[in-house]
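Input C-alpha cells:
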C-alpha cells in the first residue's frame, strides 16, 4: 500500500508564489483594470440590451470592428480571470479550513459578478443586432473567428430578463445559489468519522471512509457504509437547506427567463436537443437489464442472494497489481504512448511538474477533477489515490481532460467554451486506453475478472446510477417549483429513483438514501443536470474508440482537431465529422453493445 505521506500535492508556484504574494495581488488588480476598461468600452459603444436604434452601428464594417474589439478585450480578461479562479479553487478544494483562500475566493466572486454583468449587457445587445450579424461576419477579423459564439449568444438572448433584472440576479446569486453551494462543499469536506480497523480507531475524513467501499473485507465495507449513512444523518438538515436554496434559485430564474423547464437551459448549455437526449436515455433504459445481470452475477460471486449497496464497489477477482504512485505514473505514460506521443508527453509533463494532488486528507474535497490554468497553458488534477486499479483509471481519466485542454491551446477562451457532453470525450478515451491495456495484460481469468470488475463498476455508475441521478434531479426540480422539500423528501425520492434504475440488481433493503448530500453536482450554480453528460461522454467516447481501433494512427489527427474544436460547434455537428448521428438510437446502441460484451465476458468467467 502506498503511504499517504509519499503522495504528491500539486505545485502552483509557477502560477503565483502564493495567495498573499505581491504577484497574485497585482494580477487581481490587473483583472479589475481590464474589467473597468471593458465596462467603458461597452458604455462608449452603447452595448446594452436597451440600446436605441439611433445608437446601433451604421454599417456592417463598423459593427464588425465593435464586435472584434469586445471579443479581443473579453478574451484577454477571461484568460487572466479564469487563471485566478482556478488558482484559488485549487486551495479551497484541498483545504476547506484555509480562511485566506475562502476570503480571496469571495473577493473574486465579486469580480465574477462584474464579468457576468458585462456578458449580460453584451448578450442583450447581440440579440438587438442579430439581424445585422450575417453581414458583419463576412468581414475578416475576430468576429468572424468567433462566429459560432456570437450566433449562440444571439440565440440565447431570447431567454433573458431585462438587463436590470439580470444584473441584480447575478449580484444576488452570491448570497443565493453560490452561498448554498459553498455551504455544501464546506460541510461535506469537514465531515469526519471515528472508525475502527485492525484494532485501531482513526478519525477518518469522509473521503477516506468512502474509499473503504473497495476494501477486501465485507464486514469493513458494511461498517463503513453504516458509518457513512450515520455521518450524513448528522448534517442532512443544512444540506437539505442548501439543495432547496440552489434548486429554488434556478427554478425562479428559469421561470422569469421564459425557459420551458430546468432541462431546457441544461440542453442549451450542453449543445444538444431533446431528441438527442431522449434517444440516448431510451437506449440506456432498454439496456438496464444487462447491468442488473452484472450486479446479480457479482452478488452470487460474493455469496449473496442480492447485492447490498456496500458491495457495489467490492473487489471481485484478483488483481495482482497494487500500484504505488510511481508505478501508476509509469503505467499511464506507457499506455498513453500506444495512442500518440503527444498524449504520452502531456502525461509526463503532468507527473514531472506536479500537476496532480493525490493525497486524501481532512479538508480536501472527495472525488476527482481537472481544471485548466490558462495563463500557463497547464492543468491541475485532483484525485484521492489509494493504490487501486480504479484510481489508476481515475488519473488516466482526469489526464484525458488535461489533454483536451492541451489540444485547445492557441484558441481563445471564448473559442474553447466546451459543453459538458463533449467535455468527457478525451477523458473516456484515455480511461479506455488504460482499461484495454490492463485487460490485455491480465495474468489469467482471476485477474481478467478483477479488471472487468473495475471497469464495470465505473460503467454501471455512469449508466445506471447516472440515470437514477437524472430522475432524482428532474423530480426535485418539478417539486421544488411548488414548495420546499424536506430531508426526508430528498431521501424518499433518491431511494425510489435508485430502485427504478438498479431494479432487482440490488438488495432493496440496502440502498443509499443520502447520495444527494455529498454529490457536488446537484449544488453547482448555473449548471443543472450535471449527470446525463457523463453518460453521453462514456458512450460517445466508447464509440470514438471503436472507430480508432479500425483506423489506428490515421484517427489521431482528426481526433485532436475534434478536441480543439469542442467550443466551435454543437455536439451533433462535431459528431457528424465521424459520420455519427447522435439523434438516432443506433449510435448509442452500438456503444452499449460494446459494454454488454464485457458484461457477458464477466458472467462467463469461472
Amino acid at each position: 500500500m502506498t503511504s499517504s505521506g509519499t503522495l504528491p500535492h500539486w505545485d502552483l508556484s509557477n502560477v503565483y508564489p502564493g495567495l498573499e504574494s505581491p504577484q497574485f495581488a497585482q494580477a487581481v488588480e490587473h483583472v479589475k483594470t481590464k474589467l473597468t476598461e471593458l465596462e467603458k468600452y461597452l458604455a462608449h459603444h452603447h452595448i446594452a440590451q436597451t440600446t436605441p436604434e439611433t445608437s446601433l452601428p451604421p454599417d456592417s464594417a463598423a459593427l464588425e470592428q465593435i464586435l472584434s474589439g469586445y471579443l479581443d478585450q473579453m478574451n484577454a480578461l477571461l484568460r487572466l480571470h479564469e487563471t485566478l479562479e482556478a488558482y484559488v479553487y485549487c486551495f479551497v478544494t484541498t483545504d476547506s479550513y484555509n480562511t485566506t483562500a475562502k476570503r480571496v475566493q469571495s473577493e473574486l466572486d465579486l469580480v465574477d459578478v462584474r464579468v457576468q454583468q458585462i456578458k449580460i449587457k453584451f448578450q442583450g445587445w447581440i440579440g438587438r443586432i442579430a439581424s445585422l450579424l450575417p453581414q458583419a461576419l463576412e468581414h475578416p477579423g475576430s468576429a468572424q473567428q468567433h462566429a459560432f459564439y456570437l450566433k449562440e449568444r444571439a440565440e440565447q438572448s431570447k431567454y433573458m430578463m431585462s438587463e436590470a433584472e439580470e444584473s441584480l440576479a447575478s449580484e444576488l446569486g452570491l448570497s443565493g445559489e453560490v452561498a448554498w453551494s459553498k455551504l455544501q462543499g464546506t460541510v461535506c469536506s469537514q465531515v469526519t468519522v471515528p472508525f475502527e480497523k485492525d484494532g485501531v480507531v482513526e478519525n477518518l475524513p469522509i473521503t477516506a471512509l468512502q474509499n473503504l467501499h473497495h476494501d477486501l473485507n465485507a464486514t469493513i465495507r458494511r461498517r463503513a457504509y453504516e458509518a457513512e449513512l450515520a455521518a450524513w444523518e448528522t448534517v442532512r438538515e443544512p444540506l437539505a437547506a442548501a439543495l432547496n436554496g440552489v434548486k429554488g434559485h434556478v427554478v425562479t430564474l428559469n421561470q422569469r427567463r421564459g425557459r420551458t423547464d430546468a432541462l431546457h437551459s441544461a440542453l442549451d448549455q450542453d449543445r444538444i436537443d431533446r431528441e438527442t437526449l431522449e434517444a440516448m436515455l431510451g437506449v440506456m433504459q432498454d439496456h438496464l437489464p444487462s447491468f442488473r445481470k452484472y450486479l446479480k452475477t457479482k452478488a452470487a460471486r460474493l455469496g449473496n442472494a442480492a447485492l447490498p449497496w456496500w458491495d457495489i464497489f467490492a473487489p471481485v477477482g484478483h488483481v495482482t497489481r497494487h500500484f504505488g504512485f510511481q508505478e501508476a505514473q509509469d503505467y499511464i505514460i506507457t499506455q498513453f504512448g500506444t495512442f500518440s506521443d503527444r498524449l504520452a508527453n502531456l502525461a509526463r509533463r503532468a507527473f514531472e511538474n506536479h500537476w496532480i494532488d493525490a493525497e486524501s486528507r481532512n479538508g480536501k474535497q472527495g472525488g476527482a477533477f481537472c481544471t485548466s490554468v490558462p495563463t500557463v497553458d497547464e492543468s491541475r488534477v485532483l484525485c484521492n489515490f489509494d493504490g487501486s486499479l480504479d484510481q489508476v483509471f481515475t488519473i488516466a481519466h482526469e489526464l484525458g481532460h488535461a489533454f483536451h485542454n492541451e489540444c485547445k491551446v492557441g484558441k481563445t477562451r471564448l473559442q474553447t467554451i466546451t459543453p459538458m457532453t463533449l467535455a468527457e470525450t478525451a477523458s473516456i478515451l484515455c480511461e479506455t486506453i488504460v482499461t484495454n491495456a490492463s485487460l490485455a495484460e491480465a495474468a489469467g481469468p482471476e485477474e481478467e475478472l478483477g479488471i472487468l470488475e473495475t471497469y464495470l463498476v465505473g460503467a454501471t455508475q455512469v449508466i445506471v446510477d447516472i440515470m437514477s441521478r437524472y430522475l432524482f434531479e428532474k423530480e426535485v426540480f418539478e417539486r421544488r417549483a411548488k414548495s420546499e422539500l424536506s430531508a426526508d423528501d430528498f431521501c424518499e425520492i433518491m431511494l425510489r429513483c435508485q430502485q427504478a434504475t438498479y431494479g432487482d440488481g440490488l438488495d432493496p433493503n440496502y440502498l443509499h438514501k443520502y447520495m444527494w448530500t455529498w454529490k457536488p453536482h446537484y449544488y453547482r450554480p448555473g449548471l443543472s443536470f450535471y449527470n446525463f453528460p457523463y453518460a453521453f461522454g462514456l458512450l460517445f467516447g466508447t464509440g470514438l474508440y471503436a472507430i480508432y481501433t479500425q483506423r489506428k494512427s490515421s484517427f489521431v489527427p482528426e481526433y485532436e482537431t475534434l478536441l480543439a474544436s469542442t467550443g466551435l460547434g454543437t455536439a451533433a455537428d462535431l459528431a457528424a465529422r465521424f459520420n455519427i448521428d447522435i439523434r438516432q438510437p443506433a449510435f448509442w446502441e452500438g456503444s452499449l453493445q460494446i459494454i454488454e460484451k464485457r458484461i457477458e465476458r464477466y458472467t462467463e468467467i469461472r
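The chain has a mean pLDDT of 95. The beta strands are 192-197, 200-205, 356-357, 369-373, 378-382.
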